[in-house]
UniProtKB/TrEMBL annotation:
Gene3D superfamilies: Glycogen Phosphorylase B. One of its GO terms (molecular function) is glycosyltransferase activity. Pfam families: Glycos_transf_1. The keyword ATP-binding does not apply. This is Glycosyl transferase. Keywords: Transferase. InterPro entries: Glyco_trans_1. Residues 188-349 form the Glycosyl transferase family domain.
Length: 372
């Protein structure tokens, strides 16, 4: 069975790219699967994640201007060439199924190209972010765009979303829920004995690391033995703001912005608790990874990801913006080793549900269904 995955690029570190590498590698090792990946702007860069040599790559060399809107004239002028090139590539490969991974220009025209080939669109972000825009939209252009987007989505054979809560945001009846697979499941787990709490993600306002620093200020007032380590890179201005906030609150010896890491597994295995303060999430892989390492989790109950991963016996969901409640949950967890270990053990057990073998079986069944 020939499967084509379409994505903008695979040279930048990101959740979509990492998940694609896991899925493509798994399928390519099965004797009846032939895997192709089409990119639009790889720019001769090396892939940032490891891909099996059996996987065939093709770059269309479209190279949209990423610092401009896709509706900017400099980008719109590239669309006809994009359509012609991807049509030619699909004609040559003649796949059984096409999977659109990233949310870029090709999302909006692929259902209308090589119509006989089944097409799947993956969504890796939460449509919760569109609710306010759709409800209170006064711009005629925006209203028209949302109607067009809904129409296009209805033309895909399947829309794959990451959790059941997301289904409420879609108007078509072609939804399939398939969670992301675990990126790793280490042989050993954290002993939960290091006085270190960890958080990780893109350093951006939506992740609310500034709120996490406020939370840690309250933790520090009652417990000076523990540290908070935050991993990730992102917006320079926001990073500078976080650094100044840490300094202002005199937490420089206890809260650390560690930058990006290519070995988050090792960092988790040397920590004892994972925390998340995001405004919204869809299906944060980092929570699965933390659970696989045996870490309990404390997170704001933001729409829509954490509540679909964290079970009551493996972590705590805190009401949004309840800084005091969040800090108290951290203090209760780190001061009670028995509870920490119990939650960590349960987290590890729940992570097994998302092992790659289980999740990929759902994808294989979907491919068979579309090609029966």
């Amino acid at each position: 069975m020939k499967i084509v995955f379409i994505i903008d690029q695979v040279y930048r570190h990101g959740g979509i790219e990492r998940v694609l590498s896991i899925k493509a590698n798994y399928l390519s090792k099965l004797k009846n699967f032939d895997i192709h990946i089409i990119t639009t702007e790889q720019k001769n860069n090396e892939s940032c994640y490891s891909f099996n040599d059996l996987i065939k790559f093709k770059d269309l060399n479209i190279n949209y201007h990423r610092n401009k809107s896709y509706f900017h004239p400099k980008n719109l002028i590239k669309v006809p060439s994009h359509i012609l090139k991807i049509n030619a590539a699909l004609k040559t490969i003649n796949p059984n199924t096409v999977v659109v991974c990233s949310h870029s220009v090709d999302t909006y025209f692929l259902p209308f190209i090589r119509k006989k080939i089944p097409k799947i669109k993956e969504f890796h972000y939460s449509k919760f972010i569109e609710v306010d825009k759709r409800t209170n939209q006064t711009s005629f252009f925006k209203k028209l765009f949302f109607k067009f987007a809904d129409f296009v989505e209805s033309k895909y054979d399947k829309l794959v979303i990451l959790n059941r809560d997301e289904a409420h945001y879609y108007k078509s009846n072609n939804i399939k829920i398939i969670p992301n697979p675990l990126t790793f499941y280490p042989e050993n787990v954290s002993p939960l004995q290091n006085p270190k709490v960890i958080s990780a993600g893109r350093i951006a306002p939506v992740k609310r690391f500034d709120t996490l620093i406020d939370i840690w200020e309250l933790v520090y007032k009652k417990n000076q033995q523990w540290q908070l380590h935050i991993y990730g890179n992102g917006e320079p201005d926001y990073i500078e703001f976080l650094q100044s906030k840490i300094k202002e609150k005199k937490l420089s010896d206890h809260v650390f912005l560690k930058g990006a890491t290519s070995d988050i597994q090792n960092k988790m295995l040397h920590s004892s608790l994972f925390v998340m303060t995001s405004d919204n999430e869809c299906f944060p892989l980092v929570l699965l990874e933390a659970q696989a390492c045996g870490l309990p989790i404390i997170s704001f109950d933001c729409p829509n990801g954490p509540r679909n991963i964290i079970k009551a016996d493996a972590g705590k969901l805190i009401m949004m913006q309840d800084v005091i409640g969040f800090s108290e949950s951290i203090l209760n967890m780190i001061s009670n080793p028995d509870e920490l270990n119990k939650y960590g053990s349960n987290a590890r057990r729940h992570a097994q549900e998302f092992k790659v073998e289980s999740i990929m079986e759902l994808w294989i069944q979907l491919f068979k269904e579309l090609n029966h």
